[in-house]
Design goal:
There is one protein chain. By secondary structure, the protein is mainly β. The protein has helices at 3-19, 60-64, 166-170, and strands at 27-33, 36-46, 49-58, 71-86, 92-107, 119-134, 139-145, 148-156, 159-164, 176-182. An 8-stranded antiparallel beta barrel has the order 1-2-3-4-5-6-7-10. The termini are far apart. The mean pLDDT is 85.
């Protein structure tokens, strides 16, 4: 099967799956954290869970001044709402947690001051836990932590190096704030 047919099949399956829950509120927005900035899309599957898709510019090493090139990543998580509280004025606070996957290309962080790091491909399991406030004016504000437990592949002098993705574990300490619009 050639690449074009595979892409068409993936898009068709995505449209069919997403079309299943059209009556439910989806949201699109931006995420901000020390790790970078990104775009997010949330799609409810049932009352008690939702899918979170994200595309992010990995910029923590740029913020630190160790590189001039941002990395990039895409991720998804399937989140379960653990508990919700609804106020008298219609706002809802939800606590959620979920797991998924992340893949991208970025520079891994340094553990020592003189340690050299390289840009490379990373992949791994992604967790996500946080709190989301759904305002009655179709706005969501979310605060979450989203660590990645994975591997980082880089090339040095024609040698492929594979190490655990240190930066992904540090993301546990760097919460992200997401502001999104429900439609």
């Amino acid at each position: 099967m050639d690449l074009n047919r595979r892409l068409i099949m993936v898009m068709a399956m995505t449209i069919l799956l997403l079309g299943k829950a059209n009556a439910q509120e989806r949201s699109i927005g931006t995420s901000w954290s020390f790790t970078g900035v990104g775009l997010t899309y949330e799609h409810p599957m049932k009352e008690s869970n939702f899918l979170h898709f994200g595309a992010q510019l990995e910029m923590s090493e740029m913020f630190l001044g160790t590189t001039a090139q941002p990395g990039g990543s895409v991720n998804f998580t399937c989140n379960d709402i653990l508990h919700s509280i609804t106020s008298r004025n219609g706002n809802t606070i939800s606590f959620f947690a979920g797991a998924g996957a992340a893949v991208g290309h970025s520079k891994d962080c340094r553990l020592k001051k003189n340690q050299v790091t390289y840009h490379g491909f990373f992949f791994g399991l992604k967790g996500r836990a946080g709190v989301r406030i759904k305002y009655d004016r179709n706005i969501n504000i979310t605060a979450a932590v989203a660590p990645v437990l994975g591997m980082h592949l880089s090339v040095k002098d024609e040698t492929v190096m594979m190490r655990y993705y240190r930066y992904g574990l540090l993301q546990t300490l760097m919460p992200e704030i997401t502001i999104s619009y429900r439609f």
